[in-house]
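Thread: quick sanity check before group meeting

JM: Hey all, I'm pulling together slides for Thursday and realized we never actually wrote out the predicted structure for the chain we discussed last week. Dropping the sequence here so it's in one place. If anyone has concerns about the input, flag it before I start.
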Amino acid sequence: MSRTFLYARVSTHDQTTDNQVQEVKAAGFDVQDNRVISETISGSTSASERKGFSTLLERMESGDTLIVTKLDRLGRNAMDVRATVEKLEAMGIRVHCLALGGVDLTSAAGKMTMQVLAAVAEFERDLLIERTQSGLARAKAEGKPLGRPATADATQIQTLRAEGLSQAAVVKALGLSLSTVKRHWNL
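JM (edit): ok, ran it. Output follows.
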């Protein structure tokens, strides 16, 4: 008897997985509460390194179905998503993605969809790199400074401290953040 699981993930603690659960139920899937795995962790963290996803893998069996609302719930890296789907397929688990029309990512059509999406993502990443490098080359040719702006010299902070200024006064005088001043305060 196949069971249906939901993997819901958000990146920050001020977000909630409630919308993902509602979306799956609205799509007609009846997922029991004990088969909903929710976690708060960055999508850039490999699925194999996520505690909640590892728990999910331990509970699922061949013939089960895993639902995600979007492909990026599994990960932001196309290679990681593909490896995760292939691992689930090897375990006999079907993977459905609602944002892709509920397609089973372990089917022939699902595999093709993932390959196309991975190719598009790689193309977009390469374009971004080209644009960034072009912009940096133009800025360098125009003589613009590159990199992070220099912070105040620690001696400036120490000098103002020796003159009796408070940390807040040094922040105002040098136009720095309080954390920068504190970092150099007791050198």
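AS: nice. The mean pLDDT is 89. Helices lie at 18-26, 51-59, 78-90, 108-141, 154-162, 167-174, 178-185.
JM: adding both to the slides.
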